[in-house]
Amino acid sequence: MMGATDSKAASGRPRALSKSIGDDGCRHDLAPVSDEEAKRVEQAISACVADFYGQARNDALLGPVFNGAVADWDVHLKIVADFWSHALLKTERYKGFPFPVHTQLPLKPEHFPRWLELFEVSARKILPPEFAEAALARAQHMARSFMAGVFPFTDKDGKPARRPG
After folding, report:
1. pLDDT tens per residue, range 99-120
2. Which one, of 74, 93, 73, lies nearest residue 85 by Cα?
3. Which of 90, 91, 143, 151 has its CA 20 to 30 A from that of 157?
């Protein structure tokens, strides 16, 4: 795994992810991108995040969760854009841990496929194709990981559950 000091190429430019996606949904073999390309990708990430949340906030299933949890949308959109910038360009603005925040939300198993569905629409519509593929791989990995972490048990009917039994 790349350390914080490995986040830029020898040229000092941000690194973009190349075509190899690991089992963790991340791309590890990085190639340098120009400053101009990095700026375009950053703008696309911000637009993708805004588009996704525009859909999600109005979605019958996801809207109540997001609207009940997010007090300041401008701050939230910036944090999420910084997360994706870190994931796709290896920038260092995002320093958080998304999983603990999500464990506090009133999530249900059916939220995860819907989140992926809406995110895929936004990513494919707005991000450059290589970055869309990387973002989708990361999102799928996160959805699987979050599902396993939030719902580590099965209930008596075999459905995912937060608690045993």
Report:
1. 988 888 999 999 999 999 999 9
2. 93
3. 143
